[in-house]
User: Fold this.
Amino acid sequence: MNGKNPTSIVIGVIGLGHIGLPTALGFAELGFTVLGADDNKSKTEAITSGDPTFHEEGLTELLQRNLSSGLFRVVPDIAEVVSRSQVIFVCVGTPQRDDGSADLAQVEAVTRAIAPLIDGYKLIVEKSTTPVRTAEQIKRTLQRYAIKSKAGNQPPAFDVAVNPEFLREGRAVYDFFHPDRIVLGVESDRARDMLVALYRPLFANNTSTEEEISRRIIITSLNTAEIIKHSANAFLSMKISFINLVADLCDATGADIAEVARGLGLDPRIGAQFLQAGLGFGGYCFPKDLRAFTRIGQEYGLDFALFEAVEKINNQRVDRLVDKVRQALWVVNGKTIGVLGLAFKPGTDDIREAPSLKVVRRLLDQGASLRLHDPEAMSNFRQTFPEDNPSLVYCVSPYEAATGAHALIVLTEWDQYRSLDMARVRELMELPVIVDGRNLYEPTTVRALGFDYHAMGRP
Assistant:
């Protein structure tokens, strides 16, 4: 996908995590010179050696290719990023405080570090997911801490922009190169034109017309761009909790949530995406951003109880699954249970707020022995559940996880689990019981093979 750089713009990216690194490498692949910085030394050393430090499809190849070409380079500090870059993307973390609000300490620290280094025009782009009016605070902080230039004792020229990310973990590389929309919150024509110049190469190799490009690049204000990002995650979370609540009704009445979701999804006003009933949402973004958005509403005196209900429904999904395990086995204590999937979603090794963390803890507390498997996330999972626990076995394959198990539970919908030899799985198990937290299998098919199959909202 390497193309000729249409401008001389040099891009800086501060924060090389799940958003910053795919963003940096995406722009490098488009032909821009990109400088990356991160305050985690072990991370930057690994990235410099060609290891992205986390699993994301296609990311390792992208990293190694752009390190070799020289279009992407990790630099030792923010000072070099600021001095050499015209556009600086801030991609640092915004973790959750105890009250649900976003902790913006990293954003503020980076802003203060940038301010005295500004020499000539710079465009500072807020890429991290932040509460509305954060860009205003970034702008004020830059003005406060910028060293005034000698000419007229005026602060250096800069703009602040908001460019929220819509990269799905597990699909971040694909999503960068195939965006459904690009949101640019700007305050000046100069900022708008620079950012449009960065993203225009994404449309160079397809048949997009100027009208189509204009429709997909949304130019708006700083505050509006920030609200677009938070409200998008809140809406998708709401859609997931909605279908899971309906799945519980299907469980109670013998209806089939798969058919209900199909009937809903064919309505173009609703759409089929995010109508897959199961264990609910996890990961770093949805739970954190939903709580932060709820907190924002409260701070402005608004009743955001709708989103509190969304979170409550999501938190109850683990209870529903564990209840199904108990109903299937009667007594969990002393049973061996195979667990398929530990990552919060397929395509990533991320276990932050993954349902598996709660499920495994609950089953261990009830006296079960667990045989765990995940294609990518077991190394991360071991940091929370060390393998010296005699009740845990980390398995090299899903078949090993099924060996001797009284039940097999599915927590992540990895494609390789869809294609298992289920007859072999049945032979390996002590009892042919499956509790499917992701509705991965067709009930009639697995039951025909002799399994006692329990799904989420399927008869």
Observations:
- The first helix runs from residue 20 to 29.
